[in-house]
Backbone:
């Protein structure tokens, strides 16, 4: 043999190409990316090395799973319907709620309606306020004094109150409501909130105030509200533009004529 393996032209070329690639990845990983995206260096040298090698750095670090604001409530079948509550007792307890949520659970201000809200939703939100997983000064203070049975009774009471009657759907209906956006992984709102399908724990939205709906969506987007199980709403709201939030909030807020009582549609 005339040439050793290393002296062979093809092999030398391959080694040179490999070296060039290594230099390029080092330049990109250590210098270019940190410059265009300053948060790339936030993780330190190890993260930078992992990025260059193309492996997740979390193999070496513990995943942060324990968010104190993550909900502890699981959607069990027993919560649906009446949440195991007593409507009569709930009605008496609800006298403390009427000044904000309305005499019959329909608010004329930006406070959310409770009339006809699913029992499991009222239950979950009250437990989340009580335990501090959903933050709101007034509601946390009010919920902290409620017992588990109080919460079940209030949920049963509000679930059976008639919802405001629906107004004709405004045209055009936002695409996100009926179709979603598969490219951004947004499922249609109606596939969880009713219309196409109703997933347990998804609130009845129609007739809530525009300001309330858009604030909640903004809070999910920014992570201020984080009590949605499995990030169901955060994953969606983060992807939405301010215009889209505005459009869906408008759509759901005008879908009901607040104040005119109809009967709650069957679950
Ligand atoms: C002082 C006014 C006030 C009173 C009294 C009050 N609430 Fe509220 N409630 C609010 C406001 C404001 C919100 C929206 C808070 C937020 O943005 O998280 C709210 C939210 C809620 C929600 C969440 C609704 C949803 O769609 O997510 C529930 C459930 C609720 N209240 C139940 C009650 C019950 C039951 C009582 C009586 C024991 C009560 N509230 C008394 C003002 C009040
Ligand atoms: C995968 C199911 C799912 C889809 C799709 C979905 N939602 Fe939700 N949404 C939920 C659940 C579950 C909650 C209750 C979160 C919690 O437990 O606090 C919620 C809560 C909300 C709330 C807060 C309401 C309140 O009273 O607290 C708003 C507003 C909302 N969703 C709007 C939307 C809009 C608008 C869309 C479409 C762009 C949408 N959602 C799509 C499941 C969904």
Residues:
């Amino acid at each position: 043999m005339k040439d050793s393996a290393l002296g062979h032209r093809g092999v030398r070329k391959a080694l040179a190409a490999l070296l060039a690639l290594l230099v390029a990845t080092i330049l990109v990983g250590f210098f270019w990316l940190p410059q265009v995206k300053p948060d790339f260096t936030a993780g330190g040298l190890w993260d930078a090395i992992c990025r260059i090698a193309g492996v997740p750095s979390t193999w070496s670090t513990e995943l942060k799973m324990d968010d104190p604001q993550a909900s502890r409530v699981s959607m069990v079948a027993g919560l649906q319907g009446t949440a195991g509550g007593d409507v009569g007792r709930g009605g008496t307890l609800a006298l403390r709620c009427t000044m904000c949520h309305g005499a019959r659970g329909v608010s004329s201000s930006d406070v959310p309606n409770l009339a006809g809200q699913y029992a499991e939703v009222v239950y979950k939100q009250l437990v989340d306020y009580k335990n501090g997983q959903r933050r709101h000064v007034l509601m946390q203070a009010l919920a902290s004094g409620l017992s588990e049975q109080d919460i079940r009774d209030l949920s049963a009471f509000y679930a059976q109150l008639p919802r405001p009657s629906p107004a004709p759907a405004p045209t055009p209906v936002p695409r996100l409501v009926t179709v979603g956006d598969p490219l951004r992984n947004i499922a249609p709102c109606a596939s969880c909130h009713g219309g196409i399908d109703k997933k347990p724990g998804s609130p009845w939205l129609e007739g809530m105030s525009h300001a309330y709906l858009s604030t909640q969506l903004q809070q999910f987007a920014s992570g201020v509200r984080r009590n949605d199980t499995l990030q169901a709403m955060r994953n969606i709201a983060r992807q939405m533009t301010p215009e889209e939030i505005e459009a869906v909030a408008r759509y759901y807020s005008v879908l009901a004529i607040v104040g005119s009582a109809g009967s709650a549609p069957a679950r």
